[in-house]
Structure formats: structure tokens, C-alpha cells
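Researcher: Predict the fold of DUF1918 domain-containing protein.
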Amino acid sequence: MNASTKTPVGSYALDPVWYRVGRVVSIGRDGVRLRPLEGEGGSDWDAHPCFLRPATPNEVMSAKVKAANAAARRGR
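Model: C-alpha cells for DUF1918 domain-containing protein follow.
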């Protein structure tokens, strides 16, 4: 199974190296580019496709709550 079928563009993926959930924005030969959730801040990052897996609904919800709380602390 390659990265494009496991974590298609537009889906949420968990990068266990950083334990971060991000939205898949592109898939290339060398890796998968993930974008942080809105409110989380930070830059897009590259992840190795063999480590990525689709994020569960609970992981996505938890990451969204964490991002919203962080944004609220920053006053956004």
C-alpha cells in the first residue's frame, strides 16, 4: 500500500514521529507534505510515508481542540 492510498490528499494523517495530526496537502516520491490544523500554527512539514497512517476521528477531534485552545491563549 502506498502513501496515496493510505493517506490521500485532503485527509487527516497522524505523523507518529512528531505525534502531530495534519492535513495531507501533497504526495511526492520522497514524502508526504502535511499542513498543521487551523489555529495550531507552524509550517507545513514533510513526513516519510511509511510512518504515516490515517488519523482516527478521536485523534482529529483532540488535535482540533488542542489547536483551538492554543489559538485562544494567543488571543486569536
